[in-house]
Amino acid sequence: MQLFIRPGDDLPIYRQIMRQIMDAIAGGRLTSGDQLPSHRDLSEQLVIAPLTVKKAYDELEALGYIGTQRGRGTYVAARLPRGATAAQASQLEASARGLVSQAYLAGLQLSDVIQLIKDADREISAAPGLQPRKEGRQR
Amino acid sequence: MQLFIRPGDDLPIYRQIMRQIMDAIAGGRLTSGDQLPSHRDLSEQLVIAPLTVKKAYDELEALGYIGTQRGRGTYVAARLPRGATAAQASQLEASARGLVSQAYLAGLQLSDVIQLIKDADREISAAPGLQPRKEGRQR
Amino acid sequence: MQLFIRPGDDLPIYRQIMRQIMDAIAGGRLTSGDQLPSHRDLSEQLVIAPLTVKKAYDELEALGYIGTQRGRGTYVAARLPRGATAAQASQLEASARGLVSQAYLAGLQLSDVIQLIKDADREISAAPGLQPRKEGRQR
Amino acid sequence: MQLFIRPGDDLPIYRQIMRQIMDAIAGGRLTSGDQLPSHRDLSEQLVIAPLTVKKAYDELEALGYIGTQRGRGTYVAARLPRGATAAQASQLEASARGLVSQAYLAGLQLSDVIQLIKDADREISAAPGLQPRKEGRQR
DNA sequence: GTGGTCTAGACCACC
DNA sequence: GTGGTCTAGACCACG
Is A103 part of any domain? Predict the structure, then answer.
């Protein structure tokens, strides 16, 4: 299980957790049915309050990425909310625009940005990240 | 002068202003020496508190993008802070990673993301955006 | 025997079971003296823990809907607890209020809600639901 | 401002709050743009922890009923999430089914249930409930 | 043991 | 003042 948080970061801890889990799903390292560690275990491991992890899980559940079953655990949703909504699409455009603008201010060219994207793709697809807890394994 | 803010957005208003001005600089629609509207005028136009605009200007000044000349107004800095700092570089990587991850969750492919980037490039370079207030044109 | 459970549901599994049995009694598909499947059989069929079914039966027994005869099985009670208690009445009002509110938020009218009620009535009275295990038919 | 909670209730406090606010919206006593009391004020008034109210507000926001603006307050959403989704529709059917079943067990007839619905309609539309805090008013 | 709820504080960013 | 985040506990319901 590799999940990293940077306590003083600009991004709230619970969002760092959300993002890493969503990254793992996006990269295929977590797929439908995989069990996530209990929010208590994860909080212990990351040395943060259980509620903080729970908040991340709650939001992910509200977004449809994971589902919880009382007394049993938390799992990656069977049907992931794919399919670009209009809102998603416009947000992606805004993000792309932000990235490009940011890059130009730093003196990069369009080709440099595209290289950045390719690097990110490789990183997301390959990163070891988050070890799901499959059936009886783990302690 | 076209500047748009969304009050309920995730991004604080003052950051929305900062970003749009930085975008305009990145896109060449604002260049060294161009005058920005006074924070009072801008606040009136956007129907927000003057302090909020002032905060955006202050931060931009602290970052070196603009400079104020007491009694004369606010101008885009003569020497813009180009040149990728280490911090900037790592932040760009993080942004790229976020964009790609977000896109994959929405079901897009790497090629789709690259297209998004190209679209953003065109939009940033061409958009009319922020109309600088050149020389004497007052109000 | 048709009994359906949704593991990740808001309602605990044991309550889903209780509700479906109470529905069957309300709809006349189960009546006084009908035998219910053993909690072990039912748990096997639903692929859940036997304790969960037992809890549902225990609660139903505490409420007076069913009775167990040691060594013989579980049966629908001879004298069902009809007669609206004050508590039941106020709960019914609360449920009705919840339903109406929920419907209005979804854009429905009063008449639509009444239609929903009529549909539900038809469904409850007619549905095949829970097949009681009459007399000697064993497994 | 009238909002009532029953601490020991079956329904969690934060859901009681959610429901009453949704009821108020459904009944037209709260409409788009109305400001809700701050979660701190409301928590004080109800004598519960601020986080509990906040959780109710958070969930309502996730559902699209209200929106928050940092530093300004919380408001009823401009565009309420009307329009029966498939999920909403099936949930309404389930609720209706539950109500009817519950009523029959209590010995009521179909006509009695319809009367219950009509009573609930009157109550929701007329109840004084939740006083929105319009512009400068309040304290 | 798992998730669900709640408390009573705290500090920060924003407007 | 507002909302946003976080802590370090606690108790309960569920399976």
Answer: no
> Angle at the Cα of C67 (from C64 to C71), degrees rounded to 5?
165
The pair of structure tokens assigned to B56 is 């955006």
Separation between Cα atoms, residue D60 and residue D36, nearest integer Å: 12
pLDDT for C28-71, tens place per residue? 889 999 999 998 899 999 999 999 999 999 999 998 999 988 88
Which residue's structure tokens are 């004497």?
A: B136
CA of C7 to C1' of F14 (A): 12
**CA distances to D24, D27, D133 from D127, in Å:** 8, 8, 17
DSSP structure string for A85-138? -HHHHHHHHHHHHHHHHHHHHTT--HHHHHHHHHHHHHHHHH--------TT--
Residue D139 lies in a domain: no
**Chain D nearest C-alpha distance from B9 (Å):** 8
Q: Which residues of chain D have pLDDT under 50?
A: 135-139
Split into its structural domains, chain B has a count of 1
Is the pLDDT confidence value at C131 over 60?
no
Q: Per the structure block, which two tokens stand in for A121?
A: 């793709």
D44 C-beta less than 7 Å away from strand E: no
Chain A residues close to C8, C-beta within 8 Å: 67-69
The CATH number of whichever domain residue C46 belongs to comes to 1.10.10.10
B-D C-beta contacts closer than 8 Å: 6
User: pLDDT of D34-52, one tens digit each?
Assistant: 999 999 999 999 999 999 9
Which structural domain range is residue A22 located in? Answer: 13-82
Instruction: Tell me, yes or no, whether D136 lies in a domain.
Output: no
What is the model's pTM?
0.84
CA at D67, C1' at F2: how many angstroms apart? 13
- Kindly tell me the burial class for residue A105, based on how many C-beta atoms sit within 10 Å of its own C-beta (0-12, 13-18, 19 or more): buried
Nucleotide of closest approach to A11 (CA, C1'): F5
What is the nearest nucleotide to A38, using C1' and CA? Answer: E2
Structure tokens, C101: 């509110």
Q: Please check whether residue B3 lies inside any domain of the structure.
A: no
Assigned token pair, C71: 């060594």
Q: Is the CB of D48 under 7 A from strand E?
A: yes
Asked whether B and D share 3 or more beta-carbon pairs under 8 angstroms, the answer is yes
| Contact between chains at C117 and D120 (C-beta distance less than 8 A) | no
- The alpha carbon of residue D59 is apart from the nearest alpha carbon of chain A, in Å, by 9
**Chain C and chain D touch, per 3+ beta carbon pairs within 8 A:** yes
